[in-house]
Design a protein that fits this description.
The chain is an all-alpha fold. The chain has one domain (4-126). It is built from 5 helices and no strands. The chain has helices spanning 4-26, 28-38, 48-76, 80-102, 106-126. Helix 1 (4-26) packs across helix 4 (80-102) and helix 1 packs across helix 5. 29% of the residues are buried.
């Protein structure tokens, strides 16, 4: 199997984003309440529901593209959907990083970097 590292990273990203989207979707109010407090001293304080919806949609898109990309890579060594999944994963993580930095949650921002590294590796390998 020539693409095992790329497939593993796509599966990792798919699990990460689909589980996160699931949590946002089925625990919407809890997430809104926590995020309103988290962003209370930032310019995003009045935009929390819209921002959360935006992140939810990007996480769903990223996760689905990564699943399709892993399947495509396994079946016929195609890289297009995996590349798009990795790119959208990076965009989503950059948005999350921006929010954490804005909220001055530096530990949260540092954690996002741990996810960003394999996402960028996937972009590089699948490009």
């Amino acid at each position: 199997m020539n693409n095992i590292a790329s497939i593993l990273i796509l599966i990792f990203l798919a699990i990460t984003f689909l589980q996160s989207a699931y949590d946002k979707l089925f625990h919407w109010k809890d997430n809104i309440d926590w995020l309103k407090e988290h962003f209370s001293a930032t310019p995003l304080r009045n935009q929390v529901p819209l921002a959360l919806l935006n992140v939810l949609l990007l996480e769903l898109l990223s996760g689905i593209l990564c699943v399709v990309g892993a399947i495509e890579l396994t079946v016929n060594s195609g890289r297009l959907y995996g590349l798009y999944g990795a790119i959208f994963s990076c965009i989503t993580l950059i948005m999350l990083l921006f929010g954490q930095r804005l909220a001055k949650d530096y530990d949260g921002a540092r954690t996002i970097v741990l996810y960003f590294i394999p996402a960028v590796m996937a972009v590089y390998w699948l490009n």
